[in-house]
Known about the structure:
The chain has 270 residues and is mainly beta. It has 2 domains: 3-131 and 230-256, no CATH class; 134-228 and 259-266, Immunoglobulin-like (Sandwich), CATH 2.60.40. It has helices spanning 3-19, 231-237; strands spanning 32-40, 48-55, 73-77, 82-90, 95-99, 112-119, 122-129, 134-138, 143-146, 151-157, 163-169, 173-177, 180-184, 187-192, 196-199, 214-215, 220-229, 243-244, 246-247, 250-266. The strands form 3 sheets. Strands 1, 2, 3, 4, 5, 6, 7, 9, 11, 14, 17, 18, 19 and 20 form a 14-stranded mixed beta sheet that branches. Strands 8-10-15 form a 3-stranded antiparallel beta sheet, with no helix packed on it. The protein has a 3-stranded antiparallel beta sheet with strand order 13-12-16, with no helix packed on it. The longest helix has 17 residues, at 3-19.
Amino acid sequence: MSFKLCIYNSLILVVLILVSNCDNPAKAKFHKELSTVAILSPGSNNQIIFVYETMEGIEDSVISENLFVKDAKVNIYNSDHNYEFTYMYDESLRKSVYINKNSNFKFIPGEKYQLKIESDIGVLRGTTIIPDSVKIISPVDNDSIVDRTDVEIKWKPGNNSYAYVINIFGPPFKIDFMGNEFIKRDTWDFHTTSESIIIPGSYFRYKSYSEYYDYTEKESRYTVMIMALDDNFKFHLFDGSDIAGVNNGWGVFGSTMIDSVDIFVVKKGE
């Protein structure tokens, strides 16, 4: 599997870290409502949705495995297609999820999609318009930069892009945990509503932070990933809203588009 495909598949993990509020379950103050975390990305093969029961009258959405709604009917649809999501427990995430198992399941950039979640608790609906595109124009793929040099990242967004998350992935390294080997990368993320950002040179080092690990490559390869957010995801992540793109419930129904490039850090004088 190519590394860029791995990045797309890891998007769901990045999104979960950004949007999930891990609070302790609270006692019901009023009636139960549905809460969801659903972020669509045309570049990912793993489209998953989280559905919880929560309570009206609390400050934050309650995210807990104990509150996951396992018997909901979950669909995403547009004028041409209807996609049904099935409950499963994801061992890698250690969380319950709803997943679409259709191998031909693809979302189209620029299209509007509807979400409908039905359960005994109620019916939650949502709408998102997927961003058209996002394209990194600087640096270019496989470009080289000098050790500890500031890097200006510029990109060209398409329609329906309202904010951006920039992820920097450090050189891959190998670690051993309880007799098993894993390939890992240091990661850093930055947020902006502009169409460019300057990342300090301290993040791009010929000898990276993980100096005590075994690197899998001779080159100091970094990956820059841009995630363009629709207005719902921006409203949740940047503005702090607990209700973004959904009706009759809590949570966020949003979408993203992604682009990434590899850059190589070289020693001064090379």
